[in-house]
Amino acid sequence: MEIFNEQLVKRVKKPKQLIIKILSVALLITIPALCIALAYPLQLAYLIYVAFFIFLIGIYIVWYVFSIQRVEYEYSVSGGIIEVSKIIALRKRKTMCKLQISDIEILDKDEKVIDTMRFAKRIEACADINDENNYYAVFNSAAYGKTLLVFAPNEKILNAMKGHLKKDIVLKIFYKRG
């Protein structure tokens, strides 16, 4: 019987997302207000109707912008394969990477280990890139070459990966040797 483990990690809200939300609400109010302000001096009544429809369409756009700011990452381990997916607003799922766990060359919590290396692709699938609980996995991808995966697995995911990792990685992570 194949064991299946999964974990969801929500991305931390950053100031960039807050600025995007504030700008979208400001535009929602400003553009229709400008249409209404121009309608009276120019005596064009249809601009008031245009402003109303712009406002209605803007409400939908602002809701959409707010919803796509919600991002989660899902780690799934099953049968020696780890799959990392990005879930946007609980509507859209995108597989970021899927690899054999045995193909992982380096798996470490220490960022200093990978600082000197160069990567063709960097996949960030963690709540916060500056979190001390992040793990850094280096593997060779057929599509990109040397790839770095930054993720934050819990103990359940790590234990599911344990049987498929290389011996030196298991000794270093689980038994603090080497």
Automatic annotation (TrEMBL):
<keyword id="KW-0472">Membrane</keyword>
<keyword id="KW-0812">Transmembrane</keyword>
<keyword id="KW-1133">Transmembrane helix</keyword>
<protein>
    <recommendedName>
        <fullName>YcxB family protein</fullName>
    </recommendedName>
</protein>
<feature type="transmembrane region" description="Helical">
    <location>
        <begin position="46"/>
        <end position="66"/>
    </location>
</feature>
<feature type="transmembrane region" description="Helical">
    <location>
        <begin position="18"/>
        <end position="40"/>
    </location>
</feature>
